[in-house]
Amino acid sequence: MTTEVSVATGHESGESGSAAAIRLDGVHRSFGSVHAVRGIDLRVEPGEIVAFLGPNGAGKTTTIDMVLGLTRPDAGEVEVFGMAPRRAIERGLVSAVMQTGGLLKDLTVAETVELTGSLFSHSRTVGEVLDRAGIADIAKQRVGTCSGGQQQRLRFAMALMSDPALIILDEPTTGMDVTGRRDFWSAIRADAARGRTVLFATHYLEEADQYADRIVLVRDGEIVADGTAAQIKARSAGRTVRATVPSLDESELRAVPGVQGLELRGESVLVHTTDSDAVARHLLTRTGAHDLEITAHGLEEAFIALTGRDAEGA
Amino acid sequence: MTTLTPENRIDAASRTVPPRGGLNVTLLRIELRRVLRNRRTMIFTLLMPVAFYFAFGNAEYGDDRLGAGNYAAYSVISFALYGAMVATTSAAASVSVERSQGWSRQLRLTPLSGFAYITVKVVAAMVLGLLPVALVYAVGQTGKAEMPGSAWITSAVLVWAGALMFAAFGLFMGYLLPTENAMQVIGPLMAFLAFGGGIFYPYPAMGSTMQHVAQLTPMWGVSMMAHLPLTAEGVQAWQWALNIVVWLTIFVGGAVWRFRRDTRRV
């Protein structure tokens, strides 16, 4: 992945060179007696779409604030494209879409975007950005009269204005209806296809599953799993193999690598395993098993297993 | 993972930091437009001073002599100053709205420096402050007001310059009051101070006890300075100068203190 990074010709190439989009190294952050982030190590490569998934209070927002330079870590290092977060912000390399606030009600949509763009040394045009966020039709409307979904798209448009290499979204679709959410994500996806790195925090499993290349699962300020949705599902509790086996030799089956448990119900057997292939192969070649079924645990189960909480829980 | 080609990659090293901490003309233009759009601010800074002039300044005692001119001229200066002070204060106090709407936090995700942000607020305050001065002085030409030509000009300049002090006051209040409508608190306070400072009630017409109290209030120094081209009756220059220095120090110091607190990286 890192080999694709283009190096600028001549100047300052060491600065961006093969730097990760985000690099967190042993990051800690406490607020009073609350240890919100407890040693997070994370490397996000340019071009990745990463979901930062975890229940509320897991430390997602604190971590994001540190990546954005809004909060400083008590210990550890945070780098964005090989530089301190504030330096990356000043260069328009990072932008963020926050959940609420951050808009002036008495400005129009177009003015808000224009103003944002004027602050950077490098920016896209207002028209282009409004089009990409799908709000060109409300350009002249006052921000205060826009719906929640429209305001969220406006925040996205503002974030696009500096043509950032990294966009960070903190629970971006909270409060949107299903259609709004889908439209919002298709805009983000289309945009990410142009080479942007995207990190989004969410506690919606489906969102993480559908829109991210990689899911980083956090709990109590720590990363508990990191991988593709499929890897995380597998890591949590593996799969269940179910089959009908006449005269099963239980001890032989238990000896198959990866088997974690057996349940026998008459002739039917349920095997919990981290290596469903090995179990299936054993059952189909060494026994007279038939009606074999393999079920993967859903992300929902993985989430609960790994975070020890309900997906929607507080 | 999305495949990246050199064409669609964003090259981090090619990006630069904007000059002047992000301060630019577009930002100023939009800030001014916002301020001018605020109907309540316009009423208090333009309509009220003019109405006051007609109601009180141009009244029957307007012809009474005072210094190099008359009471009507004194009130032109007074109400222009009041309008300008409300203008600069409310333009600067808009930071409270921006803090409560999360805009200040949003700006921290841009290159805009705190210094550039404050500069925009102060420049907008000064432009807005110019409007009531121009309007009241224009209206003042039509009534009983009378003073030498040079006094019209110098007092107008002093009014405008003096009102700058209240941009600092507005910033201080804007950072101090955790509300979206800081001006609802500041407005009545300013009217009260205007009575104390010899603006709504002419200083030369006050009794001596009242004059002693007036000298301690924050609008008094500026008011005396602005009225100087017309009359310097009974006031030593060091008195109003000291008043200005002390209050300006308090306002600027307070604004800096609150601003630092607000933007401190936690």
Automatic annotation (TrEMBL), chain A:
Keyword Nucleotide-binding in annotation: yes
InterPro entries for the chain: AAA+_ATPase, ABC_transporter-like_ATP-bd, ABC_transporter-like_CS, ABC_transporter_ATP-binding, P-loop_NTPase
Keyword annotations: Antibiotic resistance, ATP-binding, Nucleotide-binding, Transport
Chief localization: membrane
Record GO terms (molecular function): ATP binding
Domain ABC transporter: 22-245
Localization: Cell membrane
A Pfam family matched in the record: ABC_tran
Topological category with respect to the lipid bilayer: Peripheral membrane protein
PROSITE patterns according to UniProt: ABC_TRANSPORTER_1, ABC_TRANSPORTER_2
Keyword field contains NAD: no
PANTHER family (UniProt xref): ABC TRANSPORTER ATP-BINDING PROTEIN
Protein name: ABC transporter ATP-binding protein
Organism per entry: Luteipulveratus flavus
TrEMBL record, chain B:
Keyword rRNA-binding: no
Residues spanning the membrane: 41-59, 71-93, 114-139, 151-173, 185-203, 237-257
Organism: Luteipulveratus flavus
Membrane topology according to the record: Multi-pass membrane protein
Primary residence: membrane
Pfam hit, one: ABC2_membrane
Domain ABC-2 type transporter transmembrane: 26-219
Protein name as annotated: ABC transporter permease
